Amino acid sequence: MSEFMSVAMNLDSDLAGLAEARNKARQAHAAFQAFADADQERVDSIVRAMADAGTAAAQELARMAVDETGFGVYEDKILKNLYNTKFVAASMLPMRTVGVLWVDEVNRMTAIGSPMGVIAAIIPVTNPTSTVLFKCLAAVKSGNAIVCAPHPRAVRSCVRAAEIMANAAVKAGAPKGLISCLELPTIQSTGELMRHPDVSVVLATGGPGMVRAAYSSGKPTFAVGAGNVPVYIHRSVKDVKEAALMAITSKSFDNGTACVAEQSIVLDEPIADAGVAAFAAQGAFFLSEADQKQLAKLIFTDKGELRPEAVGLSAQELGRRINLSVPSGCKVLGAQLTEVGPQAPLSREILGPVLSFYRTADLPAAYEQCRQILAFGGEGHTLGLHCEDDQVIATMSALRAGRIVINTPTLFGGMGYSCATDPSFMLGTGTWSGSIVSDNVTPLHLINIKRIAHEIRPWRSLYQASMGI
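Structure (tokenized):
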């Protein structure tokens, strides 16, 4: 093929992608307008149908996601899908999102929920189908339309997930076009979708570049930041073995592709040796300094960027790629570090089953260690604490983390399963990392709220008070 023909084909593909983005945005807007009169009962019946369809397809979608992307663990991706279609959906259904939300009889004020419009939903390659399921459910529950923009490496699985959601919604009475997915996603077509006049808001989950593009689209944007999550195990911990089990289970889940999972373990010196032994007993394989350097080269580029080909691999496969024999029972690789920053690459967020370990002499030292870890690409996300000392919790809670979870795996606590944080698959990181929201995102973030307010005190009283009357 000539260079000219190759350029021409790429141009045709780009133009087709741009046209698809425009068409789907227009179709979604028309569907949103047709859906505008839906009451809460109708919305909820559609969401139930979507959740049921997603539950039935959980295994199919997990298989597609693993086969297409090469990331993660099939069984764990099933659980991620089911978490959204069963647990998160169940938490959404009682919410009032359209029509009258609440009435304040005393103050004569009524709150009315009003959808935002068309949502452009950016879908990551690490959690494609589960993110599509979550964002489609959240969008329709809040009365909105949605167009998903998948990562190019996850197109087939994302299109299929959106198709399942769309078919179920239409059968339950939703207008056609309310849910769709780009089939020709590129950086250009995704940008076109986000900037389209018919799009009202962007939900961005993805790498730093895509998140920056979302915020520069000119549209209101909910985005998530990196999750370099530190976990402090204090000397007051009830059971260091249980703490180790929680962290390893969380970090090894789906081969570490969840940004809310533990990244660094900070051990209080009096229990540090017991902690290292507990992690080893639970499936952590600690690397030599030479092996740590080889692993860092495998996972990161010279610029400190994650290599896509090293994401979501098992501990055994990571070991094999650095010519290291890893025990069959190994669940995570452990790196014992003393520094945080570019000079210590394994102190960065790693989307894989790798944990870094630090020792600290006391609470002030642990605070500083966790502060440094969060500052190195994780501010606003999550902090884990294992302790029975309220003073430790009070001190560490001053750190810049949107979720501080106690005596639980950060993955399951942060996303709202084992803790009472809002069940969600999109975790905001606040202004600490350039995000507009620090909450776990729910359908209530995707509505405008009108307030019908009657006069409750004479307006003239303001003037009278200012003049001393």
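The chain has a mean pLDDT of 94. Residues 304 and 345 are 7 Å apart (CA to CA).
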